[in-house]
Amino acid sequence: MLVGCIAVAALIAVAVIVKQFRTDALTWDMGSTYILVVGIAFHMGLGLSKLTGSDEYRVDSSGVRQLVNPGWISSVVPSHQVVVLVAAAVVGWLALAKRRSVVIPLPASLWTSFIVIALAVDYLRYGSLPSGEPLLMLVSLIAACAAVRSRAGVITGAATFVLGMCILGALIAVVNSAAAIQTCTVKCSIGGIIFSGPTSHGNSLGLILACGLPFVWMAFRGQARVWLVIYVAANLALSGSRTAMLAGAAGLVVLVVTNPSIQGRIVSGRNQWFAIGSATCLAVTSLLVPRLITDPNFATGRGRLWELAFSRIEGTPLFGEGSTAWYREFTAGSFGSASAYSTHNQWVEATLFLGMVGVVLFGAIVFAFMMPRSANSRFLIAPVLAVIFSLGVTERPIALALVDLISWVLFALIMISVGDSPLQGKASPYLQAVPGIHTVGQIPSESKKRLSMRGRNVIA
């Protein structure tokens, strides 16, 4: 019964999305393709393994289902590093061939500085430098900036990826339900199951969908928006990830109050102060909670992980322990595999990597995101940051020095910060539809007044 409901909902979502593309309601360009490829790359192998039934799992001592073997697909499908590198190379080649200038926004420059300094701090210990994870992140950041054609295209690409994950999960549930739907462990969804879809477990799917909700909201309009947001939220609820559900709810509150959207080059929204204030408050909360909580059992043991991370930088408070610090703790047996990927807090990870310098630098990155080149891009960026820092209290959603399952969100934010590329030839039809607008990307003051209704800001 549940599988049937998931399948029907996915079919309706497909019909809605196809209609939106057929009526040219969505913008698709190189930025859309880049975000979609980077997002898919990390899940392509496991998703195909689940479809074919070649994946193998085991349940660890804490009741968490862990992937043991992705099956024969892993030997056929290229790694996500290869896919992302090829995508970056194609974008770079096209930029050079067309002699396009590449704008590197301040957040990308600061993030690059963070990675370079973190690598320099423990360069002697970084045994996998040739495999290129931090270098791949740097290349991917530059490629993201080069791929930008429009903010609307970036948002469409991100929304399409998120919806695609839900639809692929439904397909896996129909073909191989045991791979997509698991029985409850210490966690459970409102449906009495854990829906992991094409990911390794429900938490991963929950993180992706929570971060993706703002993009789905902003990409679509009218009834299509209502249905697709409900569809993604329902999949999120089935994931069983409590942190992701709370973050998704926080993001929805910001979205409802600010109602951001983009059509062509026109960004609209209301209550910008609420958007910025919410994202800022959540960022500060995620910074302070690990420093104020002393209970090691807080949030199923997160307190113990934070205490361990802070203890490791007591001798190096200024520059921290470098980009491999947490992995070294894992190999030393300080914690289990469930915590191996991060310190479970966005700011704690920055502190461990680069100490106080890392905190200041990461704070500067957040501030730079809040001050994009186009002021009304804040309507597009703030809801995403609100979700990230809601998750960031007890998770590390954005990896600092490697490309992983949520890196597409970072690239999308950076690409939105870049803004729209200058139009070639003729003006956008959305700009032509506004009386008195004859210049690209600019709206005269009298037109701004006519477009300002009920406190709603509209600007190109």
The biggest sheet, with number of strands, parallel, antiparallel or mixed sense and barrel status, is: 3 strands, antiparallel
**What is the string of SSEs from the N terminus onward?**
HHHEEHHHHHEEHHHEEHHHHHHHHE
Given the structure, what is the number of helices? 19
Strand order of the largest sheet: 5-6-7
Number of strands: 7
Low-pLDDT sequence parts: 127-131, 424-455
How far the N terminus sits from the C terminus, by CA atoms, comes to 47 Å
Radius of gyration: 22 Å
Roughly what fraction of the amino acids lie in strands? 5-15%
Class by SSE composition: mainly alpha
Give the CA-based shape.
globular
- Fraction of helical residues: 55-70%
Average pLDDT number? 86
Q: Which labels suit this protein?
A:
globular, about 450 residues, two-stranded antiparallel ribbon, mainly alpha
Written account of the structure:
The protein is mostly helical and about 450 residues long. About 60% of the residues lie in helices and about 5% in strands. The chain has a three-stranded antiparallel beta sheet with strand order 5-6-7. Strands 1-2 form a two-stranded antiparallel ribbon. The chain is globular, with a radius of gyration of 22 Å. The model is unreliable at about 125-130 and about 425-455 (pLDDT under 50).
